[in-house]
Write a structure and sequence with these properties.
Helix 17 (about 395-410) crosses helix 18 (about 410-445). Strands 1-2-3-4-6-5 form a six-stranded antiparallel sheet. The chain is α+β, with helices and mostly antiparallel strands. The radius of gyration is 31 Å and the shape is globular. The protein has 38 helices and eleven strands.
Length: about 850
């Protein structure tokens, strides 16, 4: 398509004119009006497609009104009030009381439009069910009212449109750009799930607050397009160049191109228009006084102007008002916009889509580059441009370099100043050199114990070296605190890698005390990170969280938000939140870490791959096993290419891949991965290590699932023995999981007495370590409910079933199959006890489906 020569078809113009008139009518009058104006079914389809995306006058009039009597209850939901009415449907606020208390948004299809809207409604249902992202509103349920009207029950977002929120809270340009990047992240997730939103605009991005911080929620996928199914759904709803979307935010190809020629760059264009709105309160091709039909025509022919020109075109009062709403001055805002934001916005909204950003993620990445004063992709790099960006990022060092130049010009005074500064730098260098010399001398003396003349021929193990080193460092380096802290920290990390977490914690705690007295902030942050990881391994989650959050704060303050050392702490915090089943927060932290690490180390850098592995674990735990498997397979190929076939990171990925495959009931394939992981770990760590126990536990589950009882039980028993040796009888999640898995097997074998004893031990241990709101106790509670049910103790079974169900509802994404499993178990038991009303509510809310 050549945009410069394309023109809207005559029928499209006619449809647009009819839709413009119909949009101002009450909904009840629309069908009769369309009957009189639409002379063909094709024209009628065009008009209804436009109306489905254009707000009606009635929508504004009825928002806040109570629902009609026929809609006071929809399924298990009590309808409270109307939230809005649009061209396709009505949206109501409702409350759900059973099995969980919460507010939901109920969306009903309009009865005054024909079958095209119904097809779009079904697509929205499929689209929302496909996605799980913190910045996309979630679907809870789909069904029909008593009158046969389809409805969706969705996450209720009590928020404001993004542009109104930014204005109300006077967000600065950097704050608005941070929100914009999050919106791009959500859109990118939809694209990865094969969905094109096609109606990105402020009204479809609501801002709510979490812990006092704004969080975007993308809503309304009613006109989304399934990228992986061209010709299905909306592709059949708008033919011959029909318009789908909100006019001011439509890309040229969405206006002019055939339906199946629209791709993710169309959403990128809409995001670019949104960027204009957030930055300068204008959209690029919407001239005041012109109709939206004129704006659409201009969008197919003209390149967008830079935001700075739109800003300058505003009258003086509007500029003052807009600048105040961004907590800046008119002049400062203009200098901030140009030239980089001008370039980013215009690249996102280029007339030729081949010149746009290739994805929402690429657009977000360039905005993040702008925010951190790095060269942007939208501008061709020149030496002068790169130099300016370097100076902006490194103001202190650039200023120091300028002083050197000045010194050469002004002579002796400046040279004297530089000499003094050099003396101070030299003194610091000498001190660092002395610290290094002390460390080296200590290590040389330490490793002399492996000399045969010293050890008298005995083999000295790494553990013995560490023990001797810890003893010596406490006594021999008392007067060299920085060298002492450095060695204590290093040896603490090595203890941790040997699986000796208690010894690691002891040394790292001592290092922290010394560094808080004699170290700088970065040294303190380093030990806090290491100590946080050690506490995490000991299942001391809250203490670990405090250490890691302090480390993050210190590194951000010292290094800025985009430094790789900041990403290191974000990664550790993400893992902690993942284990605590706080999946949304875990994803946020890990995605931020992944973005930073990809920027610094590339997509195949070791740190990048580690974070990607951790993010895949979150995805797996959320129940998207196939998606996690795809990531693990990519990681395995990268790890093997970088490290060869036998490396700890290869073993780590194989273990995770085995679990993801196992959860899809592919037991033979899972066994291959897990056996290989075990072999690598035994070779590297020996027979007694927590990593070996982890592989043994997972392998035992796979063997037992294949009815290889003798081999599976022997493997599980060995796993428990290794864990007890590693942790010395102390509580640990790994022990709790192994006990649960063994108990679960005995349930399946019908040995319920033995199963109950193991499951009660597992539940007690995991609850003490994690609290009740955690997935590990939920698994054991669910299985104990099965045991008590099968041994005729229904009251005890009900208590455990309720614990599992309530925990899973609280911590897992809506629609997760573990929630439905717990609900159905509880409902079946309640029916046996005669509690048919509550059982029916649970069965209606969680119908029988394939897991």
């Amino acid at each position: 398509m050549d945009p410069s020569t394309s023109h809207p078809s005559p029928r499209w113009r006619q449809a647009a004119e009819i839709a413009t008139q119909a949009a101002d009518l009450p909904a009840r009058e629309v069908p009769r009006f369309l009957d009189s104006k639409c002379t063909t079914s094709e024209l009628r389809t065009e008009v209804e497609a436009l109306l489905a995306t254009w707000p009606t006058a009635e929508g504004q009039a009825v928002a806040g009104d109570p629902p009609p009597p026929s809609l006071e209850r929809i399924g298990p939901y009590d309808v409270v009030r109307t939230l809005g009415v649009g061209g396709m449907g009505e949206v109501f606020l409702a409350r759900q009381h059973e099995p969980i208390e919460r507010e939901v948004a109920i969306k009903l299809i309009r009865t005054t439009v024909s079958g095209t809207a119904g097809q779009r409604f079904l697509l929205e249902r499929r689209a929302l069910a496909r996605m799980r992202h913190p910045f996309i509103a979630q679907i809870y349920e789909a069904g029909e009212t008593r009158q046969g009207r389809p409805f969706l029950a969705m996450e209720y977002v009590d928020g404001e449109a993004v542009d109104k929120y930014c204005k109300k809270h006077r967000l600065t340009i950097p704050e608005r750009l941070r929100l914009f990047c999050s919106i791009c992240d959500g859109v990118h997730h939809a694209h990865q799930k094969g969905l094109l939103h096609r109606d990105i605009k402020p009204g479809n991005i609501l801002i709510t607050e979490l812990d006092g911080k704004p969080v975007p929620k993308i809503i309304d996928f009613g006109i989304a397009k399934e990228l992986d199914a061209p010709g299905v759904g909306p592709a059949q709803l708008t033919r011959d160049g029909g318009l789908v979307g909100t006019p001011a935010y439509l890309s040229p190809e969405a206006i002019m191109a055939p339906e199946n020629d629209v791709d993710i760059r169309s959403d990128v264009y809409s995001l670019g228009v949104l960027l204009y709105r957030l930055v300068v309160d204008r959209v690029p091709l919407d001239e005041e006084g012109s109709s939206w039909l004129d704006a659409l025509t201009r969008a197919t022919r003209e390149e967008t102007p830079p935001p700075s020109s739109l800003w300058k075109a505003l009258d003086a009062d509007r500029r003052r008002e807009a600048a105040a709403a961004r907590r800046t001055s008119e002049k400062a805002l203009l200098s901030l916009i140009r030239p980089d934001l001008d370039a980013i916005a215009r690249k996102a909204t280029a007339l030729d889509r081949d010149e746009r950003y290739s994805s929402a993620a690429e657009l977000a990445s360039d905005v993040r580059r702008f925010r951190t004063h790095r060269p942007i992709l939208a501008r061709r790099g020149t030496s002068l441009y790169e130099a300016k960006k370097f100076i902006r990022r490194h103001r202190a060092s650039a200023f120091a370099a300028a002083l050197v130049v000045l010194a050469l010009i002004v002579g002796l005074v400046a040279r004297t100043f530089e000499a003094r500064r050099a003396d101070r730098a030299a003194a610091e260098a000498l001190k660092a050199q002395e610290d290094t010399r002390q460390v080296v001398e200590f290590l040389v003396g330490l490793f002399e114990v492996s000399d045969p003349e010293q050890s008298l021929g005995a083999t000295v193990t790494a553990r013995e070296l560490l023990d001797k080193g810890a003893e010596r460092v406490r006594t021999e380096l008392e007067d060299q605190p920085r060298a002492k802290a450095r060695l204590l920290d290093t040896m603490g990390v090595v203890y941790g890698r040997l699986g000796l977490s208690q010894e690691a914690t002891t040394l790292l705690s001592e290092a922290l005390v010394v560094r808080r007295t004699d170290g700088d902030d970065l040294e303190i942050a380093e030990t806090l990170l290491h100590l946080g990881n050690a506490r995490f391994e000991d299942s001391e989650t809250e203490v670990a969280r405090r250490h890691l959050e302090e480390a993050l704060e210190l590194r951000r303050e010292a290094l800025g938000p985009r430094h790789p050392l900041v990403a290191e702490v974000l990664d550790a915090l993400g893992q902690l939140h993942e284990v605590a089943a706080e999946y949304i927060r875990a994803e946020e932290l890990l995605e931020e870490a992944l973005d930073i690490r990809t920027e610094h180390f590339g997509p195949d850098g070791d740190p990048t791959l580690k974070t990607l592995n951790h993010l895949a674990l979150v995805i797996n735990n959320r129940g998207d096993y196939a998606a996690a498997q795809a990531i693990f397979e990519r990681l395995l190929a990268s790890r093997e290419r970088l490290h060869g076939p036998e490396h700890p990171e290869v073993a780590r990925v194989l273990n995770a891949l085995g679990i993801a495959v196992y959860l899809q009931d592919l037991h033979a394939e899972a066994e291959v991965h897990l056996r290989r992981s075990l072999a690598i770990r035994e070779k590297i760590y020996g027979g007694t290590h927590r990593m070996v126990a982890q592989s043994l536990t997972n392998l035992a589950n796979v063997l037992l699932e294949q009815d290889r009882k003798e081999e599976g039980l022997a493997t599980m028993e060995r796993s428990i023995q290794v864990l007890e040796a590693v942790y010395g009888g102390e509580l640990h999640n790994s022990v709790a999981i192994a006990l649960h898995n063994l108990g679960d097997y005995y349930v399946r074998e019908g040995e319920l007495e033995r199963a109950e004893e193991l499951l009660r031990r597992a539940l007690a241990a995991s609850t003490e370590l994690n609290g009740e709101l955690h997935p590990i106790p939920a698994f054991s509670a669910q299985r104990l409910g099965d045991v008590l049910r099968d041994t005729d103790r229904p009251e005890g079974a009900e208590a455990f079933y309720r614990q599992a169900f309530e925990t899973r509802v609280a911590i897992l994404p809506a629609g997760h199959h573990h929630i439905a499993m717990s609900a159905r178990s509880l409902a079946a038991l309640l029916r046996l006890q005669g509690e048919t009303d509550e059982a029916a509510r649970l069965e209606e809310a969680y119908p029988e489906t394939e897991d």
